[in-house]
Fold this sequence. Notes:
By secondary structure, the chain is an alpha/beta fold. Helices cover 43% and strands 17% of the residues. The chain has two domains: 14-125, Rossmann fold (3-Layer(aba) Sandwich), CATH 3.40.50; 131-388, no CATH class. Helix 3 (54-68) runs parallel beside helix 4 (84-94), helix 7 (140-146) crosses helix 13 (256-263) and helix 9 crosses helix 10 (184-196).
Amino acid sequence: MFKRQLNPHPCKSFFLFGPRQTGKSTYVKSILDRNDLYVDLLPQRNFLRYAKNPGQFRGEVLAHQKKHHTFTCVIDEIQKIPSLLDEVHELIESTDIRFILTGSSSRKLRRGSANLLAGRAYTYHLFPLTFQELGDSFQLGKALKTGCLPPVWGQESDVKEFLYSYSETYLKEEIAAEGLVRNIGPFSYFLDIVAASDGETVNFNNIARECSVSNKTVQQYYQILEDTFLAFKLSAWKTSSRKRLVTHPRYYLFDAGVTNALAHTLGENISRRTRGRRFEQFFIGQLRAQIEYARLRYQLYYWRTNHGAEVDLLICQGRKILYAIEIKSSSTISGADLSGMKSFLQSHANVPCYVVGIDQPRRLISEQITVLSWDTFLMEEIMKDFGEL
């Protein structure tokens, strides 16, 4: 079992969100004691029992408390029965029971006006495995091809079959079964487009035409991916005193292996262009995990002018740009590759700029731009900020 970087408060109740198969249940079970109570809502018998009578859950928890006094209660896949949160709320208020509430979707919670226990429970997110969690077993080439879900690096014997099953069964059938989409056909085609264009600037109108659905429906599809933590949005930075900026968002799927399965590039040697895109996806995913686990209140954007000058990533705190980052997978990096960064520096001269690559020694490529390896940036630059907080 992998030692995860997530470090929740030891006494406070909390939500733990993340995509299926990222290891939420495994992690939660690893921190429980023998007297703790674990309620899994995935089995149909449990779902039906508590859905018909949420009050029964409260009675069972109080009976457990009478026997064991202080303990932690876990509800796995809480989005299945949002009404249980009312019972949890009352129990937090009236007892000293700690609750851990896991979920692979926030859609029903947010859209159904569920009781989200404001101020009574923290919120954490679990991501695919980080390179630190994988330690000596980490291989970048494998991460870019088959991703970083725990089964891929654990006991799963047929990784390709697992990833194809994940992309077909969960991303399509289960999302339809949850009632998140009514017609699975256009949504399946939409997923193919998302995987093929991962990390590109999105034009909702073009995708709507390809899928033969409305612009609004495409935007709803993207929201479903965000709500189920299967994709994340990288918004465009919109403040500039000198340049007109593109404002369309970019979306990245949460894992390179799942992306390759959906894009039908899992069983082949990926092209140089595809490898570059997967490396960008991988780095941003690892950065998001690092920021979340360190509880850094940072936001991520990309920067692009309407003339085509762009920077892959901005790390910001509020309206302050902390870092500008170009992500390069090629072995050779020179000043000729950084026209977008140079354009950015014309209006943001004091922002530290980095080019992160693969196996790159730290060096200055100009007075304002530092080249270094992606892992060095994550371990030294980001965690340096963490140490200063």
